[in-house]
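sry for the spam today, last one i promise. C-alpha coordinates for design, 501 residues
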Protein backbone atom coordinates (compact mmCIF):
# COMPACT_ATOMS: atom_id res chain seq x y z
CA UNK A 1 0.00 0.00 0.00
CA UNK A 2 1.38 3.42 -0.95
CA UNK A 3 1.65 6.16 1.66
CA UNK A 4 -0.94 8.91 1.41
CA UNK A 5 0.86 11.88 -0.14
CA UNK A 6 -0.73 14.19 2.43
CA UNK A 7 1.29 12.39 5.11
CA UNK A 8 4.59 13.21 3.42
CA UNK A 9 6.66 16.27 4.28
CA UNK A 10 10.01 17.51 2.98
CA UNK A 11 12.45 20.01 4.47
CA UNK A 12 15.45 21.22 2.47
CA UNK A 13 18.34 23.12 4.03
CA UNK A 14 20.66 24.92 1.60
CA UNK A 15 23.59 25.12 3.97
CA UNK A 16 27.00 26.70 3.54
CA UNK A 17 28.81 23.36 3.59
CA UNK A 18 26.15 20.81 2.61
CA UNK A 19 22.67 20.72 1.12
CA UNK A 20 20.29 18.43 3.01
CA UNK A 21 16.83 17.06 2.30
CA UNK A 22 14.72 15.36 4.95
CA UNK A 23 11.58 13.45 3.94
CA UNK A 24 9.21 12.24 6.67
CA UNK A 25 5.70 11.00 7.18
CA UNK A 26 3.43 11.02 10.21
CA UNK A 27 2.72 7.51 11.46
CA UNK A 28 0.80 6.67 14.64
CA UNK A 29 1.24 10.21 15.87
CA UNK A 30 5.01 10.11 15.40
CA UNK A 31 7.33 11.46 12.74
CA UNK A 32 8.96 8.67 10.74
CA UNK A 33 12.03 9.48 8.67
CA UNK A 34 11.78 8.12 5.13
CA UNK A 35 14.89 9.64 3.58
CA UNK A 36 17.89 11.77 4.42
CA UNK A 37 19.75 12.99 1.36
CA UNK A 38 22.95 15.00 1.76
CA UNK A 39 25.49 16.37 -0.68
CA UNK A 40 28.69 18.31 0.08
CA UNK A 41 28.23 21.43 -2.02
CA UNK A 42 30.66 23.67 -0.08
CA UNK A 43 28.84 26.80 -1.17
CA UNK A 44 30.79 28.99 1.25
CA UNK A 45 34.04 28.03 -0.48
CA UNK A 46 32.71 29.74 -3.60
CA UNK A 47 32.52 33.22 -2.06
CA UNK A 48 35.18 35.69 -3.11
CA UNK A 49 36.30 38.83 -1.26
CA UNK A 50 33.33 40.76 -2.71
CA UNK A 51 30.92 38.02 -1.57
CA UNK A 52 30.25 36.94 -5.14
CA UNK A 53 29.35 33.25 -5.50
CA UNK A 54 31.47 31.59 -8.16
CA UNK A 55 29.86 29.94 -11.14
CA UNK A 56 31.41 26.63 -10.08
CA UNK A 57 29.83 26.80 -6.61
CA UNK A 58 26.42 27.65 -8.04
CA UNK A 59 26.63 24.76 -10.50
CA UNK A 60 27.46 22.38 -7.65
CA UNK A 61 24.37 23.63 -5.85
CA UNK A 62 22.09 23.37 -8.89
CA UNK A 63 23.32 19.84 -9.65
CA UNK A 64 22.43 18.81 -6.11
CA UNK A 65 18.98 20.37 -6.33
CA UNK A 66 18.20 18.40 -9.49
CA UNK A 67 18.59 15.28 -7.36
CA UNK A 68 16.29 16.68 -4.70
CA UNK A 69 13.68 17.74 -7.28
CA UNK A 70 12.97 14.14 -8.25
CA UNK A 71 11.87 13.25 -4.72
CA UNK A 72 9.75 16.39 -4.33
CA UNK A 73 7.43 15.47 -7.22
CA UNK A 74 5.19 13.26 -5.07
CA UNK A 75 4.92 15.59 -2.07
CA UNK A 76 2.17 18.24 -1.81
CA UNK A 77 3.51 21.77 -2.26
CA UNK A 78 2.10 22.85 1.11
CA UNK A 79 4.18 20.12 2.78
CA UNK A 80 7.50 21.37 1.37
CA UNK A 81 9.71 24.06 2.82
CA UNK A 82 13.12 25.09 1.50
CA UNK A 83 15.42 27.51 3.31
CA UNK A 84 18.78 29.08 2.60
CA UNK A 85 21.18 30.00 5.39
CA UNK A 86 24.42 31.90 6.04
CA UNK A 87 26.16 31.88 2.65
CA UNK A 88 23.00 32.76 0.76
CA UNK A 89 22.34 35.52 3.28
CA UNK A 90 25.58 37.30 2.34
CA UNK A 91 26.06 36.37 -1.33
CA UNK A 92 25.88 39.52 -3.47
CA UNK A 93 24.60 37.55 -6.47
CA UNK A 94 22.16 35.41 -4.49
CA UNK A 95 19.26 36.28 -6.80
CA UNK A 96 21.04 34.65 -9.72
CA UNK A 97 21.45 31.42 -7.76
CA UNK A 98 17.91 31.47 -6.37
CA UNK A 99 16.24 32.12 -9.74
CA UNK A 100 17.68 28.96 -11.28
CA UNK A 101 17.27 26.96 -8.07
CA UNK A 102 13.55 27.73 -7.87
CA UNK A 103 13.10 26.71 -11.50
CA UNK A 104 14.78 23.38 -10.77
CA UNK A 105 12.74 22.71 -7.63
CA UNK A 106 9.49 24.28 -8.84
CA UNK A 107 9.12 25.66 -5.34
CA UNK A 108 9.99 28.96 -3.61
CA UNK A 109 13.13 29.26 -1.48
CA UNK A 110 13.17 31.33 1.69
CA UNK A 111 16.42 32.94 2.82
CA UNK A 112 16.11 33.01 6.61
CA UNK A 113 17.87 35.39 8.96
CA UNK A 114 20.43 34.19 11.46
CA UNK A 115 17.92 34.63 14.27
CA UNK A 116 15.28 32.64 12.38
CA UNK A 117 17.84 29.91 11.77
CA UNK A 118 18.76 29.80 15.46
CA UNK A 119 15.11 29.59 16.53
CA UNK A 120 14.34 26.83 14.03
CA UNK A 121 17.42 24.86 15.11
CA UNK A 122 16.25 25.14 18.69
CA UNK A 123 12.81 23.78 17.79
CA UNK A 124 14.45 20.86 16.00
CA UNK A 125 16.46 20.05 19.12
CA UNK A 126 13.51 20.55 21.48
CA UNK A 127 11.23 18.24 19.49
CA UNK A 128 13.76 15.40 19.23
CA UNK A 129 15.51 15.56 22.61
CA UNK A 130 14.36 15.44 26.20
CA UNK A 131 15.57 17.01 29.40
CA UNK A 132 14.57 19.36 32.18
CA UNK A 133 15.80 22.86 32.92
CA UNK A 134 17.63 25.26 30.64
CA UNK A 135 19.73 23.93 27.78
CA UNK A 136 22.48 25.55 25.74
CA UNK A 137 22.19 24.52 22.08
CA UNK A 138 25.18 24.94 19.75
CA UNK A 139 25.11 24.43 15.98
CA UNK A 140 28.36 24.96 14.05
CA UNK A 141 27.55 25.29 10.37
CA UNK A 142 29.68 26.02 7.36
CA UNK A 143 29.48 29.82 7.60
CA UNK A 144 27.61 30.54 10.83
CA UNK A 145 27.35 29.26 14.37
CA UNK A 146 24.08 29.46 16.28
CA UNK A 147 23.95 29.69 20.08
CA UNK A 148 20.65 29.36 21.94
CA UNK A 149 19.65 29.03 25.59
CA UNK A 150 16.11 27.87 26.16
CA UNK A 151 13.83 25.67 28.20
CA UNK A 152 11.55 23.04 26.71
CA UNK A 153 10.19 24.64 23.52
CA UNK A 154 10.93 28.28 24.37
CA UNK A 155 14.25 29.90 23.41
CA UNK A 156 15.25 32.60 25.89
CA UNK A 157 18.26 34.08 24.14
CA UNK A 158 19.73 33.35 20.72
CA UNK A 159 22.42 34.61 18.35
CA UNK A 160 23.89 33.66 15.00
CA UNK A 161 27.61 34.43 14.59
CA UNK A 162 29.57 34.78 11.36
CA UNK A 163 31.92 31.89 11.96
CA UNK A 164 31.73 28.36 10.64
CA UNK A 165 33.83 25.36 9.74
CA UNK A 166 34.14 26.29 6.04
CA UNK A 167 34.97 29.96 6.68
CA UNK A 168 37.51 29.11 9.38
CA UNK A 169 39.13 26.47 7.20
CA UNK A 170 39.67 29.08 4.48
CA UNK A 171 41.01 31.64 6.94
CA UNK A 172 43.18 29.60 9.29
CA UNK A 173 43.91 26.26 7.59
CA UNK A 174 43.96 27.33 3.92
CA UNK A 175 47.51 26.11 3.35
CA UNK A 176 46.67 22.67 4.72
CA UNK A 177 49.05 23.14 7.67
CA UNK A 178 47.96 21.49 10.93
CA UNK A 179 50.22 23.24 13.39
CA UNK A 180 49.42 24.43 16.88
CA UNK A 181 49.75 28.01 15.64
CA UNK A 182 46.88 27.43 13.16
CA UNK A 183 44.65 26.14 15.93
CA UNK A 184 45.65 28.95 18.30
CA UNK A 185 44.75 31.58 15.70
CA UNK A 186 41.37 29.99 14.93
CA UNK A 187 40.53 29.50 18.61
CA UNK A 188 41.47 33.10 19.47
CA UNK A 189 39.32 34.44 16.63
CA UNK A 190 36.33 32.39 17.73
CA UNK A 191 36.79 33.43 21.36
CA UNK A 192 36.82 37.09 20.31
CA UNK A 193 33.55 36.68 18.40
CA UNK A 194 31.70 35.03 21.30
CA UNK A 195 33.18 37.14 24.09
CA UNK A 196 30.40 39.80 23.98
CA UNK A 197 27.76 37.08 24.57
CA UNK A 198 29.27 35.31 27.55
CA UNK A 199 27.83 37.48 30.34
CA UNK A 200 24.25 37.36 29.05
CA UNK A 201 24.31 33.63 28.32
CA UNK A 202 25.85 32.69 31.65
CA UNK A 203 23.27 34.87 33.41
CA UNK A 204 20.55 32.55 32.09
CA UNK A 205 22.61 29.46 32.86
CA UNK A 206 21.94 25.93 31.67
CA UNK A 207 21.72 22.42 33.05
CA UNK A 208 22.88 20.69 29.89
CA UNK A 209 24.64 21.54 26.64
CA UNK A 210 23.53 19.99 23.35
CA UNK A 211 25.41 20.04 20.05
CA UNK A 212 23.40 19.92 16.84
CA UNK A 213 25.98 20.11 14.07
CA UNK A 214 28.00 17.83 11.83
CA UNK A 215 31.12 18.86 13.74
CA UNK A 216 29.66 17.56 16.99
CA UNK A 217 28.41 14.36 15.36
CA UNK A 218 31.84 13.74 13.84
CA UNK A 219 33.52 14.27 17.21
CA UNK A 220 31.17 11.83 18.88
CA UNK A 221 31.88 9.23 16.19
CA UNK A 222 35.63 9.68 16.76
CA UNK A 223 35.30 9.39 20.54
CA UNK A 224 33.25 6.19 20.35
CA UNK A 225 35.65 4.68 17.80
CA UNK A 226 38.55 5.43 20.14
CA UNK A 227 36.91 3.77 23.15
CA UNK A 228 35.59 6.87 24.93
CA UNK A 229 32.01 7.45 26.00
CA UNK A 230 29.78 9.77 23.97
CA UNK A 231 30.09 12.81 26.23
CA UNK A 232 32.22 15.56 24.71
CA UNK A 233 34.49 17.39 27.17
CA UNK A 234 37.28 19.95 26.82
CA UNK A 235 40.06 17.45 27.67
CA UNK A 236 38.76 15.15 24.93
CA UNK A 237 38.66 18.03 22.45
CA UNK A 238 42.23 18.93 23.32
CA UNK A 239 43.31 15.33 22.73
CA UNK A 240 41.63 15.46 19.31
CA UNK A 241 43.53 18.67 18.55
CA UNK A 242 46.83 17.03 19.55
CA UNK A 243 46.07 14.11 17.23
CA UNK A 244 45.38 16.53 14.36
CA UNK A 245 48.58 18.52 14.98
CA UNK A 246 50.56 15.27 15.00
CA UNK A 247 49.36 14.63 11.43
CA UNK A 248 51.03 17.86 10.25
CA UNK A 249 49.05 18.29 7.03
CA UNK A 250 45.32 18.35 6.31
CA UNK A 251 45.81 15.88 3.47
CA UNK A 252 47.55 13.53 5.92
CA UNK A 253 44.82 13.84 8.57
CA UNK A 254 44.31 10.34 9.92
CA UNK A 255 42.29 10.14 13.12
CA UNK A 256 40.66 6.87 14.15
CA UNK A 257 36.90 7.15 13.66
CA UNK A 258 36.99 10.18 11.35
CA UNK A 259 35.36 9.55 7.97
CA UNK A 260 36.82 10.86 4.72
CA UNK A 261 33.76 13.02 4.18
CA UNK A 262 34.29 14.84 7.49
CA UNK A 263 38.03 15.50 7.12
CA UNK A 264 38.05 18.79 5.13
CA UNK A 265 36.21 20.81 7.81
CA UNK A 266 36.89 18.75 10.93
CA UNK A 267 39.83 20.73 12.32
CA UNK A 268 38.19 24.14 11.81
CA UNK A 269 35.00 22.98 13.50
CA UNK A 270 37.08 21.49 16.30
CA UNK A 271 38.84 24.83 16.87
CA UNK A 272 35.51 26.67 17.10
CA UNK A 273 34.14 24.14 19.57
CA UNK A 274 37.24 24.38 21.77
CA UNK A 275 36.75 28.15 21.87
CA UNK A 276 33.11 27.77 22.89
CA UNK A 277 33.97 25.29 25.64
CA UNK A 278 36.59 27.67 27.00
CA UNK A 279 34.61 30.90 26.89
CA UNK A 280 31.34 29.49 28.23
CA UNK A 281 32.91 27.09 30.73
CA UNK A 282 31.06 24.13 29.23
CA UNK A 283 31.66 20.94 31.24
CA UNK A 284 30.23 18.43 28.79
CA UNK A 285 28.12 18.22 25.66
CA UNK A 286 25.79 15.61 24.22
CA UNK A 287 24.41 15.41 20.69
CA UNK A 288 20.90 16.17 19.55
CA UNK A 289 18.60 14.02 17.46
CA UNK A 290 17.57 16.99 15.34
CA UNK A 291 18.44 20.51 14.24
CA UNK A 292 17.41 22.88 11.42
CA UNK A 293 15.70 20.36 9.12
CA UNK A 294 13.75 18.76 11.94
CA UNK A 295 12.76 22.22 13.18
CA UNK A 296 11.42 23.05 9.72
CA UNK A 297 9.32 19.86 9.75
CA UNK A 298 7.81 20.56 13.15
CA UNK A 299 6.98 24.10 12.11
CA UNK A 300 4.91 22.58 9.32
CA UNK A 301 3.31 20.08 11.71
CA UNK A 302 1.43 22.46 13.94
CA UNK A 303 -0.52 19.70 15.71
CA UNK A 304 2.69 17.83 16.52
CA UNK A 305 4.43 20.77 18.16
CA UNK A 306 5.12 21.13 21.85
CA UNK A 307 4.15 17.62 22.85
CA UNK A 308 6.17 15.57 25.30
CA UNK A 309 8.81 14.08 23.03
CA UNK A 310 9.34 10.87 24.94
CA UNK A 311 5.65 10.22 25.44
CA UNK A 312 5.06 10.76 21.73
CA UNK A 313 7.82 8.28 20.93
CA UNK A 314 6.51 5.70 23.39
CA UNK A 315 2.93 6.08 22.17
CA UNK A 316 4.03 5.54 18.59
CA UNK A 317 6.00 2.40 19.47
CA UNK A 318 3.15 0.95 21.51
CA UNK A 319 0.74 1.46 18.63
CA UNK A 320 3.17 0.23 15.98
CA UNK A 321 4.01 -2.98 17.89
CA UNK A 322 0.46 -3.54 19.18
CA UNK A 323 1.41 -3.43 22.83
CA UNK A 324 -1.37 -3.96 25.37
CA UNK A 325 -1.45 -0.38 26.68
CA UNK A 326 -3.40 -0.96 29.93
CA UNK A 327 -0.97 -3.76 30.81
CA UNK A 328 2.03 -1.60 29.90
CA UNK A 329 0.73 1.11 32.23
CA UNK A 330 0.18 -1.45 34.99
CA UNK A 331 3.76 -2.74 34.77
CA UNK A 332 5.12 0.80 34.60
CA UNK A 333 3.23 1.97 37.67
CA UNK A 334 4.31 -1.03 39.72
CA UNK A 335 7.94 -0.69 38.62
CA UNK A 336 7.93 2.96 39.75
CA UNK A 337 6.25 2.03 43.04
CA UNK A 338 8.94 -0.58 43.71
CA UNK A 339 11.62 1.92 42.75
CA UNK A 340 10.23 4.46 45.19
CA UNK A 341 10.47 1.96 48.06
CA UNK A 342 14.20 1.37 47.50
CA UNK A 343 15.14 4.73 45.97
CA UNK A 344 17.25 5.93 48.90
CA UNK A 345 19.42 2.87 49.60
CA UNK A 346 19.79 2.08 45.90
CA UNK A 347 20.39 5.74 44.91
CA UNK A 348 17.54 5.79 42.39
CA UNK A 349 16.01 9.15 43.31
CA UNK A 350 17.07 10.69 40.00
CA UNK A 351 14.00 11.59 37.91
CA UNK A 352 15.79 10.60 34.71
CA UNK A 353 16.39 7.07 35.99
CA UNK A 354 12.75 6.76 37.03
CA UNK A 355 11.59 7.88 33.57
CA UNK A 356 13.87 5.37 31.86
CA UNK A 357 12.61 2.56 34.09
CA UNK A 358 9.01 3.54 33.33
CA UNK A 359 9.79 3.67 29.60
CA UNK A 360 11.30 0.19 29.65
CA UNK A 361 8.28 -1.10 31.57
CA UNK A 362 5.89 0.35 29.00
CA UNK A 363 7.81 -1.37 26.18
CA UNK A 364 8.46 -4.69 27.91
CA UNK A 365 6.28 -6.61 25.43
CA UNK A 366 7.54 -4.92 22.28
CA UNK A 367 9.29 -8.10 21.09
CA UNK A 368 6.14 -10.24 21.23
CA UNK A 369 4.96 -9.03 17.82
CA UNK A 370 7.93 -10.88 16.33
CA UNK A 371 7.49 -13.97 18.50
CA UNK A 372 7.27 -15.24 22.06
CA UNK A 373 10.44 -17.28 21.81
CA UNK A 374 13.42 -15.01 22.44
CA UNK A 375 11.07 -12.05 22.88
CA UNK A 376 13.65 -10.24 25.01
CA UNK A 377 16.27 -10.50 22.23
CA UNK A 378 13.71 -9.21 19.73
CA UNK A 379 12.92 -6.30 22.05
CA UNK A 380 16.59 -5.41 22.44
CA UNK A 381 17.15 -5.48 18.69
CA UNK A 382 14.13 -3.30 17.97
CA UNK A 383 15.18 -0.60 20.44
CA UNK A 384 18.84 -0.67 19.42
CA UNK A 385 17.92 -0.06 15.80
CA UNK A 386 14.94 2.27 16.18
CA UNK A 387 15.00 6.05 15.99
CA UNK A 388 13.84 7.24 19.41
CA UNK A 389 13.29 11.01 19.62
CA UNK A 390 13.62 12.13 23.22
CA UNK A 391 16.25 9.53 24.10
CA UNK A 392 19.99 10.03 23.75
CA UNK A 393 22.15 7.24 22.34
CA UNK A 394 23.25 6.16 25.81
CA UNK A 395 19.65 6.17 27.07
CA UNK A 396 18.53 4.15 24.06
CA UNK A 397 21.23 1.54 24.75
CA UNK A 398 20.18 1.33 28.39
CA UNK A 399 16.56 0.75 27.35
CA UNK A 400 17.64 -1.93 24.88
CA UNK A 401 19.64 -3.77 27.52
CA UNK A 402 16.92 -3.50 30.16
CA UNK A 403 14.48 -5.07 27.71
CA UNK A 404 17.06 -7.65 26.69
CA UNK A 405 16.99 -8.96 30.26
CA UNK A 406 13.37 -8.60 31.27
CA UNK A 407 13.09 -12.37 31.67
CA UNK A 408 15.36 -15.41 31.83
CA UNK A 409 18.93 -15.58 33.22
CA UNK A 410 20.66 -12.34 34.17
CA UNK A 411 24.02 -11.17 32.84
CA UNK A 412 26.16 -8.38 34.29
CA UNK A 413 28.44 -8.17 31.25
CA UNK A 414 25.98 -6.37 28.98
CA UNK A 415 26.04 -3.27 31.20
CA UNK A 416 29.81 -2.83 31.29
CA UNK A 417 29.91 -0.94 27.97
CA UNK A 418 27.07 1.48 28.78
CA UNK A 419 27.91 5.17 29.21
CA UNK A 420 26.34 7.61 31.62
CA UNK A 421 25.25 4.96 34.12
CA UNK A 422 27.02 2.62 36.49
CA UNK A 423 26.59 -1.12 35.72
CA UNK A 424 25.32 -1.69 39.27
CA UNK A 425 22.61 0.94 38.80
CA UNK A 426 21.56 -0.57 35.47
CA UNK A 427 21.25 -4.01 37.06
CA UNK A 428 19.19 -2.60 39.92
CA UNK A 429 16.74 -1.10 37.43
CA UNK A 430 16.60 -4.45 35.64
CA UNK A 431 15.75 -6.31 38.83
CA UNK A 432 12.91 -3.91 39.65
CA UNK A 433 11.53 -4.20 36.12
CA UNK A 434 11.56 -8.01 36.30
CA UNK A 435 9.72 -8.04 39.63
CA UNK A 436 7.03 -5.72 38.24
CA UNK A 437 6.56 -7.99 35.23
CA UNK A 438 6.25 -11.08 37.43
CA UNK A 439 3.59 -9.53 39.67
CA UNK A 440 1.58 -8.24 36.70
CA UNK A 441 1.52 -11.60 34.95
CA UNK A 442 -2.24 -12.12 35.26
CA UNK A 443 -2.86 -8.78 33.50
CA UNK A 444 -5.47 -7.69 36.02
CA UNK A 445 -5.19 -4.78 38.45
CA UNK A 446 -6.91 -6.85 41.13
CA UNK A 447 -4.21 -9.52 41.01
CA UNK A 448 -1.36 -7.13 41.89
CA UNK A 449 -0.68 -7.54 45.65
CA UNK A 450 0.34 -5.09 48.31
CA UNK A 451 3.99 -5.71 48.99
CA UNK A 452 6.91 -4.29 50.90
CA UNK A 453 10.36 -4.06 49.33
CA UNK A 454 13.56 -3.06 51.10
CA UNK A 455 17.17 -3.01 49.95
CA UNK A 456 20.51 -3.41 51.66
CA UNK A 457 23.50 -3.60 49.37
CA UNK A 458 22.48 -5.89 46.52
CA UNK A 459 19.99 -7.76 48.68
CA UNK A 460 16.29 -7.18 48.10
CA UNK A 461 13.87 -8.26 50.82
CA UNK A 462 10.32 -8.78 49.59
CA UNK A 463 7.42 -9.22 52.01
CA UNK A 464 4.02 -10.55 50.90
CA UNK A 465 1.04 -11.88 52.76
CA UNK A 466 0.97 -15.65 53.25
CA UNK A 467 -2.63 -16.01 52.05
CA UNK A 468 -1.75 -14.22 48.81
CA UNK A 469 1.26 -16.47 48.26
CA UNK A 470 -0.88 -19.54 48.96
CA UNK A 471 -3.38 -18.46 46.30
CA UNK A 472 -0.67 -17.64 43.72
CA UNK A 473 1.60 -20.69 43.52
CA UNK A 474 2.80 -19.86 40.01
CA UNK A 475 4.04 -16.41 41.07
CA UNK A 476 5.68 -17.97 44.13
CA UNK A 477 7.51 -20.38 41.86
CA UNK A 478 8.60 -17.56 39.56
CA UNK A 479 9.94 -15.57 42.53
CA UNK A 480 11.97 -18.59 43.65
CA UNK A 481 13.40 -18.88 40.13
CA UNK A 482 14.16 -15.15 40.17
CA UNK A 483 16.05 -15.62 43.44
CA UNK A 484 18.23 -18.25 41.73
CA UNK A 485 18.92 -15.97 38.75
CA UNK A 486 19.82 -13.16 41.14
CA UNK A 487 22.34 -15.27 43.09
CA UNK A 488 24.26 -15.95 39.90
CA UNK A 489 24.97 -12.25 39.34
CA UNK A 490 26.03 -11.59 42.94
CA UNK A 491 22.72 -10.37 44.34
CA UNK A 492 20.07 -11.81 46.57
CA UNK A 493 16.28 -11.86 46.68
CA UNK A 494 14.72 -12.76 50.06
CA UNK A 495 11.05 -13.60 50.21
CA UNK A 496 9.19 -13.46 53.51
CA UNK A 497 5.54 -14.15 54.22
CA UNK A 498 3.48 -12.04 56.60
CA UNK A 499 0.26 -13.09 58.26
CA UNK A 500 -2.87 -11.34 57.17
CA UNK A 501 -4.96 -11.01 54.03
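last one done:
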Amino acid sequence: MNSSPNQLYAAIDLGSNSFHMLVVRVVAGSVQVLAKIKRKVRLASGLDTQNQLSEEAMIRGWDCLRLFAERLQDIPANNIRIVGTATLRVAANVEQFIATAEQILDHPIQIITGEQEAETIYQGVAHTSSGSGNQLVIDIGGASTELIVGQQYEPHILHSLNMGCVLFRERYFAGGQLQQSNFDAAISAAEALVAPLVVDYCAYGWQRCVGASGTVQALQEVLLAQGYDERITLPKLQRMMAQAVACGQLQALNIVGLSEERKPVFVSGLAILIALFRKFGIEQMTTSGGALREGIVYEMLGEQRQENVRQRTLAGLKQQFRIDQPHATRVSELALALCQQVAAPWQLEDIELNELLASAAQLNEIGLLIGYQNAQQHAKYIIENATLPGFSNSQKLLLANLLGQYQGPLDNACYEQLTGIEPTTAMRLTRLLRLAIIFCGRRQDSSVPELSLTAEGETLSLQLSQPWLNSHPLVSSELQQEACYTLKIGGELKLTAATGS
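The first strand starts at residue 8 and ends at 14. ok im logging off now
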